[in-house]
Amino acid sequence: MNFGIIGTGLIADFHARAIKEIPGCRIVACMDVVPERANAFSAKYGCTAYSELPRFLKHPDLEIVTVCTPSGTHMEAAVQAAQAGKHLIVEKPIEITLERIDAIIEACEKNGVTLSGVFMSRYHEGAKLLKQAVIGGRFGRLTMGSAYIKWWRSQEYYDKGGWKGTKRYDGGGALMNQGIHAVDLLQWFMGPVDSVLSYCATLGHERIEVEDTAVAALRFKNGALGVIEGSTAAYPGFLKRIEICGVGGSVILEEESFKCWQFASELPEDASIRERFAPRATSGGGAADPAAIGYLGHKLQFEDVVTSIRQGKRPSVDGQEARKAVEIILAIYRSAELGKEVKLPL
User: Fold this and answer.
1) Which residues lie below 8 Å from residue 12, measured CB to CB, with a gap of 6+?
2) Which CATH homologous superfamily contains domain 2-120+297-318?
3) In this model, does residue 281 exceed pLDDT 70?
4) Model pLDDT for residues 179-188, shown as the tens digit of each residue
């Protein structure tokens, strides 16, 4: 299938590298409002460059569009692409308000195109094994589920980013931009969140409008409790960690490795899982460098989207799935602002 990429910043390279490794797929066009960036990207990946969205959307045989623009600008590009009949893959967060997310979902449904929000961490094998353990009832009653994203971003990261750290385009800080993958995994494993009580602060950076440190206590609809800790002010930065506990077992997933995989009822495959996924050196997961990630997860997710389009079914992370983590984060922001517990849905 023929892909086009809107926005040719850092993350667009990961999209392009993923697409190039999918059999039968190719990049035919790219678009950026800065012509020089679009031209450089097109030269690197052998596609046609555009600086105007309407012309880009008319590129011959363009089928799937991936949106890599600043978070708070996703809606405009996505809605126009949907109206042009293009299938959509939108980087995280799919948008920064529920109203803007719903506008994207509505446009895609109205025009009969597929929509997927990027949460590539779900496609890593460790995350899938943990999800299967939850579905299989191996934890018994779930009691606690927590996410820890203690990362580091320098002041320069925010100063040179232009849109980073702004409410209008970033939509939030350590949670909305960096921690959202862990928030998504947490709710995917634990199920819907019932309420949150939180604090947010800007402690380690200047000249930003959003939080660089946040903590939230969660109550899930199944009765379990949990915590989310997110920061970009925790030098030198640590791998993201998800902890899932129940009366029948506990698992600690650190990036793509298991620091703990223990169940009261041991199965024959448990020993090999512990061995295969033992903690080891990784790509860094973006803990201190936003470029220090791999593109395997993007490739696996894009393959799922292509297969879904061809089979006429919804991708595993459709618009409604991509909306869930954003709603939790917005509830955390509202709780911190109001100084009280906030119930979901918002």
Assistant:
1) 5, 30, 41, 66, 68
2) NAD(P)-binding Rossmann-like Domain (3.40.50.720)
3) no
4) 999 999 999 9
- CA distance between the termini of the chain: 38
Report CA Rg, the chain: 20
CA gap 53, 265 in Å, rounded: 56
Q: What own/partner pairs with CB < 8 Å and gap ≥ 24 does 25-28 have?
A: 25/1, 25/302, 25/306, 26/2, 27/3, 28/2, 28/3, 28/4, 28/59, 28/60, 28/61, 28/62
Helix (H, G, I), strand (E, B) or coil at 283: coil
Q: Which residue has the higher pLDDT, 178 or 290?
A: 178
CA dihedral 40, 116, 230, 346 (to 10 degrees): 130
Residue 109: partners with Cβ closer than 8 Å, 6 or more residues away? none
Specify the DSSP class assigned to residue 209.
Answer: S
pLDDT in tens, 70-84: 999 999 999 999 999
* Tens of pLDDT, residues 6-18: 999 999 999 999 9
Which residues is 89 bridged to in the sheet? 66, 116
Domain layout of the chain by residue ranges? 2-120+297-318, 124-288+325-343
Short-list 228, 211, 213, CA closest to 328? 228
Contact, 254 vs 278, CB < 8 A? no
Tokens coding 286 = 């973006």
CA angle 254, 256, 257 (to 5 degrees): 60
Q: What percentage of residues in the chain have a pLDDT greater than 70?
A: 98
Fold of 124-288+325-343: Dihydrodipicolinate Reductase; domain 2 (3.30.360)
Q: Where are the beta strands (DSSP E) in the chain?
A: 2-6, 26-31, 48-50, 64-67, 87-90, 115-117, 142-150, 193-201, 213-220, 225-231, 241-246, 249-254, 257-263, 342-343
Residue 214's φ and ψ, nearest 5 degrees, are -150, 145
Provide the 3-class DSSP secondary structure of residue 278: coil
Q: Would you say 31 and 51 are in contact if contact means Cβ atoms under 8 Å apart?
A: yes
CA dist., res. 247 & res. 164, Å (int): 41
